[in-house]
Amino acid sequence: MRIDGKHYRTIWVAEDGWTVMILDQTRLPHEIEIAELRSLGDAAEAIEEMKVRGAPLIGATAAYGMCLGLREDVTDEGIERAYARLIRTRPTAINLRWALDRMRSRLLNQPYERRIELAYAEAAAICDEDVAICKAIGDHGLPLIRAAAARKKPGEPVNILTHCNAGWLATIDWGTATAPIYRAQEEGIPVHVWVDETRPRNQGAAITAFELLHQEVPHTVIADNVGGHLMQHGMVDLCIVGTDRTTRCGDVANKIGTYLKALAAKDNGVPFYVALPSTTIDWTMCDGLAEIPIEERGEAEVTHMRGRTADGRIETICITPKGSPAGNWGFDVTPARLVTALVTERGVCPASEAGLAGLFPERAG
């Protein structure tokens, strides 16, 4: 995807062949800053501090973190030490564990002298596969937007509501929830996106709006509590969100507030779709509410906000009374019964164990 007309991926290897480069997403939308990851610690901190975020990108960054860890210690003990450091960075996104398990399996029992080369090749493969997966999600999600467009008056846009950021900045390229939108744009289908601000970190207002702006997709940033009102008045044709972990039975964990949007959509007869790569499916879990670990983050994300002042300075300010405590749950679980369908790289299916098993029979059971 593009920033100021230039194509970027969210993560890549520098010309030296080993330094890992990322777009520091904590600086968006006011500053575009490319950060270097030169050690295992750098990679772990980038995930923890949300310089990178979104389940697929977290997994890819962890994979490259293993590469950087091997540069420090190429032994089996070094692999296990890197795995242990990275696995504890974020608890909810399943891609983290998936990528680390894949890297560890690829590297153990390999000759020491080949491990670094193999690690970088495997991390690159994870990234390339994610791009292909997200493009396929876009291809399978496009007919849903095309069908909505057919019900509109000529030239009238399809109004899509999304929550948080499941765009290219959460993946390597294309995104998950945004991939069908970008495919619709390519086909000339008029679309308009309602962008939830997504408190407390404002990933919608800061990141989704940023990428839609640079992709020239019409959009409007709205407060988190506006979605239900828009649905009541027929101003939303469909919702598309992403997910950080999906159970084999179709429950989805996504950014806090997703559940409330799904409830409003159900009440107003608005289709609610979840776009996901199969790497976010946790086949070991069925009951998302009982089993998915929900990350609790620091209260400063709720009590403080970062923005640009009138004179151009980037400042962080406190918005709550001094001494008032804050709670900060990062995700909630939307039960499968509220999800119209899941959009994957292999097609669209019901949010159910049977639906997912039909698309991924080799993983089911």
UniProtKB/TrEMBL annotation:
Q: Which InterPro entries does the record associate with it? A: IF-2B-related, IF-M1Pi, IF_2B-like_C, Initiation_fac_2B_a/b/d, M1Pi_N, NagB/RpiA_transferase-like
- Asked if the Swiss-Prot or TrEMBL record annotates the protein with the keyword Isomerase, the reply is yes
Q: What is its EC number?
A: 5.3.1.23
Pfam families in UniProt: IF-2B
User: Per its UniProt entry, which superkingdom is the organism in?
Assistant: Bacteria
Enumerate the catalysed reactions.
5-(methylsulfanyl)-alpha-D-ribose 1-phosphate = 5-(methylsulfanyl)-D-ribulose 1-phosphate
Q: What class of enzyme is it?
A: isomerase
Marked site, Transition state stabilizer, at C164
Which residues are noted in the entry as substrate-binding?
R53, G54, A55, R90, Q203, N254, K255
NCBIfam families noted in UniProt = eIF-2B_rel, PRK05720.1, salvage_mtnA
Name by which UniProt lists this protein: Methylthioribose-1-phosphate isomerase
Originating organism:
Benzoatithermus flavus
